[in-house]
Amino acid sequence: MSELTIPIKLLHPAAVAPQAMRPGDAGFDLTSVEDTVLRPFERALIPTGIALAIPEGYAGFVLPRSGLAARNGFSLVNTPGLIDSNYRGEIKAIGINLDAQETLRIKAGDRIAQLVVMRVGFCAFEEREELDETVRGAAGFGSSGM
Question: What is the pLDDT of residue 143?
Answer without folding.
Answer: 63
